[in-house]
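Re: export button greyed out
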Amino acid sequence: MSLPISFLSDFGHDDEFVGVVHGVLATLAPESRVIDVSHSVARGDVRAGALALTRSVQYLPPGVVLAVVDPGVGTDRRALAAETEWGYFVGPDNGLLSPAVAMVGGATRIVSIENEEARIPSAGETFHGRDIFGPAAALLASGEAAIGELGPDVPPGSVSPLLLPLAEAHEGTVTGEAWWIDHFGNAQTNIGPDDLAQVGLRPGTTVTVKIGSRLHQLSWVVSYGEVEAGQGLLHVDSSGLIALAVRGGRADEDFGIVEGTAVSMVGAP
Amino acid sequence: MSLPISFLSDFGHDDEFVGVVHGVLATLAPESRVIDVSHSVARGDVRAGALALTRSVQYLPPGVVLAVVDPGVGTDRRALAAETEWGYFVGPDNGLLSPAVAMVGGATRIVSIENEEARIPSAGETFHGRDIFGPAAALLASGEAAIGELGPDVPPGSVSPLLLPLAEAHEGTVTGEAWWIDHFGNAQTNIGPDDLAQVGLRPGTTVTVKIGSRLHQLSWVVSYGEVEAGQGLLHVDSSGLIALAVRGGRADEDFGIVEGTAVSMVGAP
Amino acid sequence: MSLPISFLSDFGHDDEFVGVVHGVLATLAPESRVIDVSHSVARGDVRAGALALTRSVQYLPPGVVLAVVDPGVGTDRRALAAETEWGYFVGPDNGLLSPAVAMVGGATRIVSIENEEARIPSAGETFHGRDIFGPAAALLASGEAAIGELGPDVPPGSVSPLLLPLAEAHEGTVTGEAWWIDHFGNAQTNIGPDDLAQVGLRPGTTVTVKIGSRLHQLSWVVSYGEVEAGQGLLHVDSSGLIALAVRGGRADEDFGIVEGTAVSMVGAP
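Workaround output, generated via the alternate export path:
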């Protein structure tokens, strides 16, 4: 029985990169369904790719995750395959996989993909999605190779972590940042409802929000419908994090937020 | 036997929204093929989504249509599932589904998706494609739920229609508008060949076309090859509607047309 | 047993064109897997489409290639289906298929798709991907039609070739051009390592490269990791051709290269 493969990358849709990897997967794992999680991660942005994977993984069918955001291609960074209770994760050793692997309970085994028989030989050294990661994912998905056949075991402690900024509560204010602006202009922060509870903030109240150097008064609501069209709001978004949105509009434009903008919320007096 | 699912949305390809819904479909309907009709409908443009679906539906394999263009997410608009002779349609109650449902012969039953067991529980209230529409489509496609298990019946008369502007013949002139500019710059109008026949216009003749405030003389041809490269033309396009095109060029740029531009055609004297 | 279909076009993702062809394929070849090679070929750019197909074909599962980059739609250019040892190729007679067909060993039979029973009847004459090429690919993939049932045989010598500029060695210098700028800004040339060997250049040396009117000294390396971040380099890329790249940057921007820019490399003294 073949496992489904969920594929995320920064390859974009300008070229045939995604299609060629699909060709490799269809050749080596002809029975596996392939799900394109996203290929629009900003070029080389490991953190954005890791966050997208973390938001997605609980909705993907258990099987194999193939993730390639790999600014270190052509250097000596390792190619990894990790086994978890949920399934397998394949990608570069740069932190891309770490939060998603942690989210599903951590790895029970990690190997460095070095076995030449698990690779597609190539003149060049730059398309590891096609030559190394894709074949490894397909071999695991089809059952043609056990994880131990891909290469030697790697001590978990040697794997690159991903350092994510955490929201902090200090003197009654929670300070964090916007870490994802979505297609609709909503700004997800790294602040959770628990962080706000710590400073006495509750849903249904008005919150003082500092974005960059400006202050805003925003209602913390459950649904967009609780404010008028064009009005800003705070809510717990579909990932369970506090997000800024504008009903029928774009929060990124109205509030001047980009990924990384500092956002703080002042606690109840 | 699992039904295929045809999926249209305004989610774009910037984010993992489409991929996450694919994950939900693959989890709940692992045997169903999923066809991405388009995810590039302009954000919240219900009419553009409805038109794209109407142009497509006759070419899709009978099964389930999942359509999400939903500016009213987070308000009290209903989530609907409709049964037709062709198959099922799942989407918001905002007119998005109405023309396509009408095109396949109308609905024999419509329900409001309210059963909590048919939803994926979520912290937030904004990603109904993932939490409500996707699961409902998957349950219908896999046969895990009958339509009546999704929620209570809805009187057909209470469902939101979509008001589409119709072309009108008046004093020998047909007046309409451009309602789709495609990837190649072709401008599809809401004028059909029957409308032109009413004012005495026939294929193979030259037609006086008013676009905005300017007049043009265009040949009504069957194929691009009948005019020189760079020349404008009228023809019946692949949807059976009158479109303006430029052989080897872009009609939108050459004629200054955007979606909604008024277009009229003067009848034969 | 149904064959997989690999689909390349210039339809883009703005519209439902790709989705509608998928609908036709799913209807006529319900058991065939469909791989989207790329749909971002520049509008009407037959050469770019042919190059993308040539780079991809060895990684696609043997079956059917469906390729539609067709600026001559609506003229009398023929619609072709070619049989090869690898599988089938379906597309317009404009050179799009020729290099990929040659790469897999050439065609054993070519027909002109003219049989009305193999087409979907349509009001318009512009969407041959949906009405002619897609159905032919699906019929071949599903085994519903043999190639001879699609239309009359065509003499191979009458098929449009694709004229590709070749690199030339002259007086110790190899002259070529950039023929693909990829998503990451890498510039693939039409110069191969064999061309450079002819003028005495070897990997591991520094090469004088003329781009437009400017001279650069670039290391010919195996991996990006051999130069510092931000530095330019030459290497054999994943297609086996000489490419210009910048470690952690974009060669197109740093060197002012677009597709078609002249690139020459001066041989060893």
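Chain B has a mean pLDDT of 95. The button fix ships in the next patch.
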